[in-house]
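Task card 7
Instruction: Convert sequence to structure tokens.
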Amino acid sequence: MASAEASRSSATPLSPSANPPLPDTAGAASAAAPAEEDLLVVRGLKTFFFTYDGIVRAIDGVSLRIRKGETLGLVGETGCGKSVTAFSITRLIPDPPGRILEGEVRYRGANLLWNLEKEAQYRENPKTHRIKIRRRFRAINAANQRMAAVRGNGIGMIFQEPSQAMNPIFSISDQVGESLLLHRGIAIIDELLHATPNSPEALAAIDRIVAAAADRRTTDMREACRELGVAAITPSAGTQAYYLARAADGSTDHLRADILRALGRLRLSSSQRTYLAHRRRLLVALNELHQVYAQEMRGGHALGSARRKLEGRMRRERFAHFYYGVWGVRSRIQKTLKDELFWRVVAALEGVSIANPVQVARGYPHELSGGMLQRVMIAMALAPDPGLLIADEPTTALDVTVQAQILELMRDLKSRVGSAILLITHDLAVIAEVADRVSVMYAGQVVETGPVREIFRRPLHPYSQGLLASIPRMDQPDRELSSIPGSVPNLITPPPGCRFHPRCPYAMPVCKTARPPLTVEGPEHEVACYLYKGPVAHN
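Output:
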């Protein structure tokens, strides 16, 4: 057992009376949209951090709704809880000191917070108001294993600090390749097992590559390399041939031999085929185990026998082929799969406009700049084609031209796969360009939600009005920019009632005593402010 204590005599920890709970609302006005279109639904999410200075109420009753194929923008000042919301959805909150206390997060019908109440117990000392937490690590580990069924190809995430999200002792190709193998490994292994590097179509494509390289026809060379990848059944063959042809720089004396030598890795020995079949069986069992986890989160009950059966099957498979982990055998027998993943990583890095993807794939995180690391993180998140992409400040460390390319990549993922996007950013111009709906956060709470055009045309909450008034406008070049007085409050002792009232020019006495409910003020437009008297939003 482990415990963490937090003391604050002036605040009443975990007291619902001090901050009345937000009604379980998340886009209640969107009744026109069928419920089955909702990809992610968040209701009444609360995430607190238990520190020795007190309890930080970082997320206090947040509710969101994201439909399939929709882009939801999440905006607000620094410290308002945008990133904590993203980490809470993916269950990446560091524990201790943070804990998700209550709420519901449903992705495609699966409750990601299932069994949350069994993971920890809280005791409050009535004299000192200290909170003692007793964690049940078996339940926490089980929750982490269940989330493995959702992260990656279900929910992908672009972190705001890529240097902290990547392991410094592994190369870029190892880290991005691990994500590819985990989420697309079965298809990759099947392509390797059925590769045909010596087919007439592949040899004809090589001849076209050599001819295009001799005349320095880059477009024709790229097309011929793509045809080679189709003929050899593995796209990495075309990627590798392209970089060999580009490195030849017009000299084609040895280009054909170099390409044929590179394709020689696709001619598998019997031991390599056995190893690939072994890895495929492990991945199939892992996928079936993830399906069991998803059934548990949808149905709300444990499937212990099915889970133990699959775990035992994986253990037996590893024990039967334990010699694949021997040092001398491992490097030789895994070479084909490792090379295949390397060239797929090169193609993924090329897709995010990295200038020299081969060199970057061979390098390590500490050798790259912040912008390059950000693009590597974006490539890693986009590679599995996630159903929901959470982008936490994805373009902060990038220049303007690369920002446009990254936003175009996210649009392509949305149109090609139908992915939904949760875009967290300070840049309201980016929100106006790519988002369908906007949620405005302040001090751990959502204060306004609505369609992006409606929010920019008619912001209702005084905080939303202040944010939009602080950015320049092309149609009003002489207009003086305004700022919101004060700063985000201390979330250990947040203001009672509406948390924005100390900075609000329209504050009324009721704002200081009771938290305003979300009210419907238009089609899919909701606001939490006593200035408006619309119907209370309900799910």
